[in-house]
Amino acid sequence: MNAQMNQTSTDVAVLIGRFQPFHRGHVVLLQRALVSAPHVVLVLGSSFQARNAKNPFTWEERAAMIGATLSEEDRARVSFVAVRDYYDDSLWSAAVRKAVAQSAPDAAHVALVGHFKDASSYYLNHFPKWENIVVESERAIDATCVRRVFFEAEDLDISLSVLDDMVPPAVRQYLKAWALLPHYAALVEEHRRIVAYKTAWKSAPYPPIFTTADAVVVSGGNVLLIRRGGYPGKGQWAVPGGFVEQRERLLHAAIRELAEETKLALLGATLEGMLVDVKVFDHPDRSQRGRTITHAHFFDLQTENLPPVEASDDASHAAWIPIVELAGMEDQFFEDHFHILDSFLSLSEEPS
What we know:
5-stranded parallel sheet; Nucleoside Triphosphate Pyrophosphohydrolase; Rossmann fold
């Protein structure tokens, strides 16, 4: 890729995406950004989280993947910034603006490059002070299809040959090397489980909306966490919780799941008296399994003593983790569970 820049008043062009992975549709957008401004900022979304079948590549891997497709001249004009998922549109857009301002502090005229492919492109409306450069989609390629080919083919060479028309050659080579890493086999299995899970609900008359309840329990500067024993998110840290049963209140579901997964030896009535707050987490993309709305219940045991816990049911491990350590564990959490903790415990600095 080598784009010749046109004369323009735009100081910086911004391209936002997850790029999981970078494909030929993204190439068109990046080329347009490169001819629109002398400096291009690529915002790599969904950063700082644990790998999963929807977000298999770290932001550093995505930056390397994209950089490999650029000429040396173009590479010198591109900056990469990593932004986490806040599951809150105002926080997320503020974080993007802050990251772009730090990458291009002297930019007076900023343009946002993108195309409106579907409802997932609504984010382009969150930057009213930036010029919009709308690019028509020339190729019906999306990263979901690329990941499906990459994870579902029984023969990797066949999979990569199918991807020839979907991704740049440099990305194809990157994927071939990346598939030799231990992450690949685990994500192939996670992808298979999620496909099976969604297939089981295809006969439902309406797309299902699942309801779960979680328990955030703190005691003496620690929070009670589990490691997930199965897919999705096998081995990742999570707050205890699970699906609400048919005849169950939300609070009772949170307390039941807490007892089943950690064997925390406190009566339900005792925990009810220690309930401090309840928050709903309903972002449509918070779970790979489908639309899942969770109700997180925050309990403060108000004691320096740590009650004994033992993993059971869906958990492979249960432990009290010092709250001061959580910020450094962000990339080890299942789905949005770090952000659930963050909302109660203020673990990360909010963008200004």
